[in-house]
User: Fold these one by one.
Assistant:
Number 1:
Amino acid sequence: MSDGPELTHVFGSVSNLDETAFDQDLFYNNLCRDLCDALSLNILEIKKHSFEPCGFTLLALLEESHMSFHTWPEHKCVFFDLFTCSRLNIGVLSTLIRSRYHEVYPDAVVKLQGFDRSFNGLSGEKFRSSEY
């Protein structure tokens, strides 16, 4: 029995992207919203910061914590991070991210790592880690 928070942290990268992946505001905004809908997460605000000559960071502030996408055009990759104070179905997240990227970027390589954490007053912190 847990008397503390249930936490989920998923992070990873999407590589082997072409140059069009780094100025697709609408793609990332929609992906963020669709992930939150599928995972029952509540968006408070989405902010984006653009870099010159291209690339950006998109951050969604969630009631449950945060989600971010950071593009790295010179390495043809995007980094993803999601942290929540609730347990999530990481398989749903993985499937949705992979399908959305592969619809637009068929050669994309998606690598995700997830951690579920639960706190128990008697035994301390417990981790469960998986690759997706």
Note: The longest helix spans residues 25-39.
Number 2:
Amino acid sequence: MVTDDMTAGRAGPGGEPPHPSGAGREPQPVAAPAAEREEPAGESRLIGFLRDLTQTYGPSGREEAVREYIRARVEAWADEVRVDALGNLIARRGPRGGAAPGRGGGSGRRIMVAAHMDEIALIATHIDEKGFIRVEPVGGQDPVILMGQRVEFAGGVIGVVSSEKLDGARDLKMGKLFVDIGAASGDDARRSVRVGDMAVFHRPLERAGRRLVAKAMDDRSGCAVVMEAMARLEDSPHEVFFVFTVQEEVGLRGARTASFGIEPDVAVAVDITLAGDTPEPEHRVAVELGKGPAVKVKDNSQIAHPLVRRWMEGTAEAEGITYQLEVLPFGGTDAGAMQLARAGVPAGTLSIPTRYAHTPGEMVDAGDLEGAVRLLVAMLQRPLPEL
């Protein structure tokens, strides 16, 4: 989920860093490959995807490790897999059961399903002679949340976020923050981190019953849902493009270019939304954890197209899948970019309720994830309603 500043085009200092982390070496995934890690006993494939994805390094503009993890698994469930010029991973699956895709006749349509691979980050802007690293945000960040957090640069360099001496809490601004990696000097720090390197939150996935907590649920939970839906989908009358997009957190960039090239008839983003069930002075969002996935009605990037809403809600009701309706007063998703492709595309969002978005402790419910998978699979097996 992108913040309002990013949907308005103020993408800040994000984008491709000028150098990879370290002296001429390519960054490596933070997490060990899945084959080298032990899966907890009884863990489902869906939760296994989520565990691996949330622990893989992938800030905006540097999604390579996430993309390769996904690609290695979805190739078995697609007819064609490719990477476009911006770095989006596009897995195409042709119609099954004899229905041909079309733009004017027949039940089959060209559908784009998007989930973004990138996560929010900090980018190194200056390293002083004592080895402290000045940073700026890549995507929406709150300096209050950042204070004291552990972060990880590509290659596994761990640091702690701290700040200059403050006159008071109101004095805490992004420009006051720095990252301490324990370096003895500027030269020592520059052997591990260079200007332009990015750091992401350092936090393992933890589970308490049905609740799962990790960094990067936004939007690795969406990626996991789409991957699992691909694995379960059998027959479909549609030509479906499953797109794992780049740079959503800095302005919906990957979805914009991918949808222009694919030119879908209909588009659906799979992303998180804020749960409004925590203690607040007023109830702003009527979405709760554990009550099922949400069908977005509106956010700051789009008003969901009536056709897509009827498709999503009608499918959920026909299949007996519990769902919620969501009106988010801020933020946006890839649907906001996809709806503006070429002459316009009917678009909507299948949302995963999430507490504490854009923090290292984003929380989702396993039942909501399963419901999102079931709804997405059922949608892709049905014809679209008429406008």
Note: Residues 8-39 have pLDDT under 50 and may be disordered.
Number 3:
Amino acid sequence: MQDDIYSFGNGVRVYRRHVLDHQVDRYVKAQAGNLHEPVEEHWFLTLLGEIPAADPLVYDIGCGIGYYTLLLLHERPGAEAVAFEPLPDHAAAIRENRALNGIAPDRLRLIEAAAHVAEGDVCFEAADFSSRVADEGGLRVAARDIAALIAAEARPVDLAKLDVQGAELALLRRIVEAGQAERVRRWIVGTHGDDLFAECCALLGQHWRVVHSDPAPAHQPDGLIVAVRD
């Protein structure tokens, strides 16, 4: 049904039409609390719990249908959430799911653009939750310079979750090379492929402290790196 709702074990709710059948199968078979990504969510909540401020600034870079942003605003009502999502269908889903969870519009800053290494526009391959910036073809979407956005914030980013289907290393390099590493205090990075996992680990280890890394965490499709700035 168009308005059927899928309820996760943590209280987050989304419209069932926003979730793929194979994802629901994974949630059920994992027997891990009916969560989207149990290991990543554990670290997300752990890092969130370490932030003393009542109004943490959290970036969700590549937020899909908004799962982690919804979880953030469920757990920390005073948080300032900034969500990046260039795919129009997913951006629409974020707005629908925000309303479904009773979250006021002013609690979420939705940037309908690809986080990128420069301002402009980029080709974007639309492929559900595997959508990504492409060299050619696909949609043309707006692109925002991630380092410039971080620099423009009135305060450092307390936590950034990065899931950009292969562009993770380029964005991390851009932030470092622009002198903005100290402006992001905590990272949760999803990686896509062994080479990117290794290179992201190395770069994060030079500028932050890696507290967890796993190229193939249980019950989720991507590698995972967690890093903090002491």
Note: The mean pLDDT is 92.
